Amino acid sequence: MRLPSEYLTYLKRLNVDKVFITTVDLRLARIYPKPVWESNQNLFNDAGEDSEIAEDVSFIANLYGAYSEIDDAGRILFPTELRRKLEFEKQQVWLDFHRGRFNAFGKAVYDERLNRATANLPDKLKTLEKKGFK
After folding, report:
1. What's the rounded Cα separation, in Å, for the pair 132 and 129?
2. Which of 5, 67, 73 is nearest to 36 (CA)?
3. Cα separation, 23 vs 39, whole angstroms
4. Bridge-partner residues for 103, per DSSP?
5. What is the CATH number of the domain that holds 38?
6. Do the domain assignments include residue 126?
7. What residue numbers bound the domain in which 81 lies?
8. Per the count of CB atoms within 10 A, which of 8, 20, 49, 132 is most buried?
């Protein structure tokens, strides 16, 4: 997959040339800049009373995930099993950015998110405007 230029610019500003690509919910692929993923690994290691939860999420992330170098053309390589599990092969994939990571998703998730986002949109906008959204 070729990353959009604005995503590449963001990663270059962070001096990131490697990402970890995985899923933790079996719906979205998550593309983590290497330092963000390393922070998640620290959280898994220091989960305390939530260590079993961390172990399970870590297991899924590592089962489907792998590091990928960003090549000179801005491309990254999704792990084969991840592409199959999320049915990304031979279909359009959308990207967005949230909480320090990029999310990749197929048509079914895109449609679900679009429906959820547009439901009661005027009310959502009013709520955010009260919080300072301009």
Report:
1. 5
2. 67
3. 16
4. 30, 96
5. 3.40.1550.20
6. no
7. 5-107
8. 20
